[in-house]
């Protein structure tokens, strides 16, 4: 491996620009690091060159650890976006700079310089000063200069960013040729996906300091695993549908999908991607040889050179949440983008306002469904605190965030939500705004039926917290996070208090998924009744060991604690001793009318916990069906012990702490 | 036969349309006012200085300039300048470097302090040194006990001059270094250049014209400084009088011709400075044109 990055981290204050980036670049490979501006890609490049110190992690170049080595001795070539030529030196002197530093004999220096001038096609310009050259020529000089000392690794930081489109395309081909001629391992940083596609042997996509996916360009385009990569590389139609054994269910239709989708572990929702070129548009449903999405209204049909771009409006589909293209605020339709060849466009001409039947040729299901949060506010400071917590967690988890405002005066609430969104800033995958004049239960039921959420955030009510929490958990399948006010910093020590059982495993898994993003440490607490038998305790220990394995596999620093006594008292004792700033509790199973009653332990805690965020996890029984792998198994847990435990606790006997 | 160029109304810069610019008459009046002012208050006085200096002929001029006391003043001025300029060159470079390239506590304070000598009247600056080093000053008794003489001697004059001219080099360099950034230095480092190599091969050449200009300004100001030096010098003829002080003393003694003769030397320094400034701007401009 020519370049190995091992868990690189870089933070400026509390803002982490590079977050646990690990990467291997092969010998002679042209690797493109792609991402929007501010995603940390240039920072990674500068760290490889040694121009920036790293906070944590290691960098290996050709097998030797250069983490502490000065940039002068790393032997890399670096090309800057704005060329950074030495303005007082001629082209020749610029190219010879590295050789002069190395005290290379004059004859050898001249030979090498002429060789490089020929390589970059600038023979005859060696006496010019940088300002006498065009931008494209300057960048070629910069490339020659960076190659003079025969670096083992070539790093290019958006080198063609300041040039116009035609010269960029020319230089791209030129770079590709030189790189394969010299066989030098190269990392090329850009925000231009087209540039990335054209150049890369393999590419990596970064966003908010994380390296999301790595692979050949075609693979990433056709089979992305994350929402960001799906929407960042090319145009995408991305919706959340449901996973069924026969395919992906989008509303009434079941679409076949290409990859293997594992619906285990309670993840029944799945993000479905189809590219505009995979959308078929015909004048009758019979003409479509593909699964039918429905009859659509043409919103826009535009000319763009070799292809035609069409935007279609589909009527809303039950339990389908569109992600991309984004649906305008207040719209009651789904947007689908399609492209057609000009030949197809001539055969079946379409203009805005026409009707057409829409089918899908090929779909791809994303493996990692992103988290989506719904933060509810009534415009009060407590509501704003809940939104703020949603913002800071959403930023860390790169979740999709919907702010729901409840106020009879909708325009005012909308202005307030705009403000809150402003305050949250970038970071979450998206921030959507909704307002409603209706009351909480009704709105929540409507919203969560329309689009399912992983987590609903609400202010911790000052009074009647238990009843309020029960209401918030009434509909659908989300978990609930009650936020204290005034807003606290992002939790760093979390107490997970769960019963030793199958549902407890799910609680730990979901809490772990969330906590992992916060960078917090977790303590899993299980409380056994005072008079419990040794066997019971043994089961508790096995459960905790499993929980610890699950959390550490998720990368969450963990600790476990088994206590004996009355549950509520022991939790309070642990809270007062441990210095926790968040607590996770499992919600009891719903009764026959699907109501969840929080009377008992959770209610008792809610009554007197005023300053901690409380996460109430609803056990997903679907995840616990015997034909699915147990929740922990997805994360690689040793299932032997847990099966014994599951067998000993029948599902209906599972009372979460009476 | 050569004809005079035909009179033309001044044109607007950049070929802007008539509606966006001033009427021709206004343009002419503005340009005229500036030229008349320049003529009356700068060119004419300059000519008068040389006229007065030479009013009694070359012999008198040379006598006034070659007089031992005048020569001593010239020597003292040159010596002061020779000490002050290199000192301020280093100080200005260090200050500009730290302000443009580092983040540190008290940076804003340093920026403000660098401008202090400009905002304080030179006379007050001189008095500050008297308060510090004078016989009745803060460190006066200690200095006297150790036989060190600062006020009314060369060290005082050097200190006062250095204080007054301290901002010149730094002021010239800070905006230049800020605008240039550090990419070239980073490039040098990735090419293998060490700290000193980067400094001498890249950083210094990058700012050479700004630095040169700062030094020229610093020199001109050191030669011509009056206020602060006047307070600390003590006016001991032939010992602690610099050229400007010598001019003032001659003037106060009604030796106008001699006064203007010596003053013409200072005027020549000013003119040379102007010419050098023009040259540097032209050179630096040529170097930057392509950016």
UniProtKB/TrEMBL annotation, chain A:
Keywords: ATP-binding, Nucleotide-binding, Transport. SMART domains: AAA. Pfam families: ABC_tran (PF00005). PROSITE patterns: ABC_TRANSPORTER_1, ABC_TRANSPORTER_2. Residues 3-233 form the ABC transporter domain. GO terms for molecular function: ATP binding; ATP hydrolysis activity. Residues 624-658 are annotated as: Disordered. InterPro entries: AAA+_ATPase, ABC_SmlMolc_Importer, ABC_transporter-like_ATP-bd, ABC_transporter-like_CS, P-loop_NTPase. The keyword Repeat does not apply. GO terms for biological process: quaternary ammonium group transport. This is ATP-binding cassette domain-containing protein. It comes from Eiseniibacteriota bacterium.
TrEMBL record, chain B:
PROSITE patterns: ABC_TM1. GO terms for molecular function: ABC-type sulfate transporter activity. CDD domains: TM_PBP2. It is found in: Membrane. It is a multi-pass membrane protein. Keywords: Membrane, Sulfate transport, Transmembrane, Transmembrane helix, Transport. GO terms for cellular component: plasma membrane. Pfam families: BPD_transp_1 (PF00528). The chain crosses the membrane at residues 25-50, 70-97, 109-135, 147-170, 211-236, 256-276. The keyword Transmembrane helix applies. Residues 74-277 form the ABC transmembrane type-1 domain. Part of the ABC transporter complex CysAWTP (TC 3.A.1.6.1) involved in sulfate/thiosulfate import. Probably responsible for the translocation of the substrate across the membrane. The complex is composed of two ATP-binding proteins (CysA), two transmembrane proteins (CysT and CysW) and a solute-binding protein (CysP). PANTHER family: SULFATE TRANSPORT SYSTEM PERMEASE PROTEIN, SULFATE TRANSPORT SYSTEM PERMEASE PROTEIN CYSW. NCBIfam families: 3a0106s02, permease_CysW. This is Sulfate ABC transporter permease subunit CysW. It comes from Eiseniibacteriota bacterium.
